[in-house]
Amino acid sequence: MGIIIQKRALIPKRVTEMTVKAPVIASKARPGNFVVMRLHMKGERIPLTIADADPEKGHIVIVYLVMGKTTALLDTMNEGDAILDICGPLGRPTRIEKKGTVACVGGGTGIAALHHIAKGNFQVGNKVVSVIGARSKDLLLFKPELEKISHQVLVSTDDGSLGHKGLVTEVLKEYLERDPEVKEGIGVGPVPMMRAVAEVAQPFGIRTLVSLNSIMVDGIGMCGSCRVNVGGEIRFACVEGPEFEASQVDFDELMMRLQAFRSQEKKSMELFEKKELL
Amino acid sequence: MQKKTRTRISPRVSMPMRDAVERGRMFSEVALGYSQEQAVAEAGRCLQCKKPTCIKGCPVDVDCKSFIRMVARKDLKGAFAKIKETNSLPAICGRVCPQENQCEKTCKLRPTGQPIAIGRLERFVADNYYARTSCEEETGGEACSVVDESRKVAAIGSGPSSLTLAGYLAANGVKVSVFEALHSPGGVLLYGIPEFRLPKSVVQREIDSLKNLQVDFLCNYVGGMSVTLPELFQQGYKAVFLGVGAGLPRFMKLPGESLIGVYSANEYLTRVNLMYGYKFPEYDTPVPPGKNVVVIGGGNVAMDAARTALRLGAERVRVVYRRTKGEMPARQEELEHALEEGIELEILSSPLSFHGDDQGVLNKVVLQRMELGKPDESGRRKPEPIEGDTFSLETDLAIMAVGTGANMVLTQTTPELKLNQRNYIWADPETGETSMNMVFAGGDIVTGAATVVEAMGAGRRAAREILRRLEG
Ligand SMILES: Cc1cc2nc3c(=O)[nH]c(=O)nc-3n(C[C@H](O)[C@H](O)[C@H](O)COP(=O)(O)OP(=O)(O)OC[C@H]3O[C@@H](n4cnc5c(N)ncnc54)[C@H](O)[C@@H]3O)c2cc1C
Ligand SMILES: Cc1cc2nc3c(=O)[nH]c(=O)nc-3n(C[C@H](O)[C@H](O)[C@H](O)COP(=O)(O)OP(=O)(O)OC[C@H]3O[C@@H](n4cnc5c(N)ncnc54)[C@H](O)[C@@H]3O)c2cc1C
Ligand code: SF4
Ligand code: FES
Fold first, then answer.
1. Contact predicate A104/A130, CB 8 Å
2. Where do the DSSP E strands lie in B195-258?
3. Whether pTM exceeds 0.90
4. What is the pLDDT of residues B218-245, one digit of tens each?
5. In angstroms, what is the span from residue A139 Cα to ligand 1's centroid?
6. How buried is B187 (Cβ within 10 angstroms: 0-12 exposed, 13-18 middle, 19+ buried)?
7. Which chain B residues touch A260 with a CB distance below 8 Å?
8. Closest residue (by CA) to atom 5 of ligand 2?
9. Could you read off the pLDDT of B165-185 as tens digits, one per residue?
10. Can you tell me the ipTM of this complex?
């Protein structure tokens, strides 16, 4: 069980940050890890990245985008409410070593997940260049938080309301051309963005990771729902990932598999909105 | 001689079943169990052999002869205590053990084709005289020793191996904490074996009775992630048992295997059993619909997936197996039940590729016809492809039940654990101890996918050894 300590709307009705009491998970959480949670007895299990952890206070932070039934239900919960089940940390943590300059690329809600990874890199003494993008200035998350742990924060918005007008990967490309010292790239965000990160980084020959968000059930390697195609091999994102070498990932397959339950998800959300479901 | 025996021996009392057509659409348990009258009649057939051979067939040494005698005398309390002396999960074993290869195989009456229905009797005893609170009945002996909080043992995973270990140790006054990664305990008994074969209430009852012995269940704890083995020892646990199972589903690396509509049996069954997906949308987890279902494999898992699909409204369910019916590893009773319910077999065939529409949704599987060649290492004749003989089946749901591998979460975070060639945890066959001192392992994570009762046997062996060490 995890009590919600603090709830903060980052983008009202769209993206929310929650601080949850989960001492065991907080003491173990490393950048790149995620949790699987179930909100109520009839609920499904959904994975969410650990955006930050405070082992002393026993708190973890999650940031979610309201997508469908479960995240919408989560968004009705408030400080003091309890999340029924919260399991973690899960997934292989990001391999963080001192290696020089690291480009951390985030899009949309992915920026929150990226935060923990950027922080880990900053703490081991790497030079962190955060490259983040959103549709517009109001939808850009975690910029102040990233500024505290980055040597540089580069911004793009689709509408040009802040920073570069255009895609985050355009900013990345330009930066990589300017700075030959970048040793590693990591991209977290929507699938098309991660695919673009892979394409942009490839010619520069730097190791680039992306964090894959395939559909999960157990999160401990027992169902294969999360399987992704990496370098022609079947890999389980929950136990072998979620981070994989970007150039090896079959993004088309990932996009396709994310649609597997679309009609049921829609039905569930409709019933929820009509208040016919908890 | 044979003939004479046959005329003297009355046939086995058959077990009441739900009607195959009716049950094929529902999740209620298929086999209804003996009434007292039927059980006493069946027990009365037992010869009470001077040198009983049934006991040798049981991996956990249940004294079949004695408990059957007690059933015949209607002493069900005594019978329950007798079984519980060596088997802590009788209600489950009575339902899912392959008795035809165990006690009923070694029963002296086997040559007549009518061995004593030991499994059904075991189930009858457990269901009817289940001990809920009394420690005496729990252990089958005298009152348990008081649980000594300073003698703590941790079990990781909550399948039958860990549950058995917990029961044995707790009855001997050891404090056991069971750490389970999922949100509820039970392992495969919960997420794999369906309700119609093993009602969840039966599993829950066994777990509740362990709780009465002060066994703690800590769910949502991932061994190796939430807590590591060295940390458990630091927290005062004197020994750790690893019963994390072999749940990693295998795929065949075929073209199209990642299409929408191709699932592992584990995913399919987990969505239905653990997550109650068959009650979607009341429950949130969706289950892939399938009207024309193909299940690949020939074991219990394949049968469970096939029968589940039928209950979820499939019009046609075909089980594709590369050898023949006689070689199917499924429990005989399950295969028979499946066929009665209308599951079809497509033997001597193996999938080559899956095909879908432009949205990536499965609509066809192409299969290779096989024939049986020379016997392989397992002694079974090896299936070989018949060159050029392929065919295809239309399908909207394909379920892969082609085996599982070792769960990797724990082993990948605990490099000190020695593995065997097949990536399972190495454990001393006598004691169950792994390459790490006072860390024991058993069940599917050591042997690879096997049976409930073998996992229990391993739990019991490890428990005995742990107790010896704690006391010695
Ligand atoms: C490792 C990992 C980390 C993630 N971290 C975050 C995060 O930090 N913040 C965040 O907002 N989202 C994150 N996600 C995605 C998040 O899990 C889904 O958005 C969520 O499950 C949607 O559930 P829903 O019921 O609200 O929406 P639904 O309407 O059920 O689904 C909307 C879409 O979400 C995806 N989805 C649905 N169920 C699952 C599931 N069980 N597992 C994964 N994806 C699913 C599907 O693509 C689906 O089409 C992460 C996913 C993974 C795999
Ligand atoms: C569908 C199906 C049908 C079957 N039918 C039969 C049958 O009819 N008869 C029969 O005898 N056998 C049957 N079997 C096989 C039998 O269920 C298994 O052999 C048996 O359950 C193995 O028990 P176990 O104790 O090794 O662990 P499992 O039952 O595999 O349980 C392992 C548990 O450990 C948990 N776990 C894994 N990793 C961790 C971790 N790191 N930390 C914490 N917990 C963890 C898992 O979540 C799981 O709950 C069937 C199996 C399946 C899948
Ligand atoms: S071997 Fe068969 S007949 Fe003999 S005691 Fe055992 S169950 Fe009875
Ligand atoms: S989520 Fe089940 S194997 Fe990864």
1. yes
2. 216-219, 237-242, 248-249
3. no
4. 999 999 999 999 999 999 999 999 999 9
5. 19
6. buried
7. 260, 288
8. B300
9. 999 998 888 999 999 999 999
10. 0.94
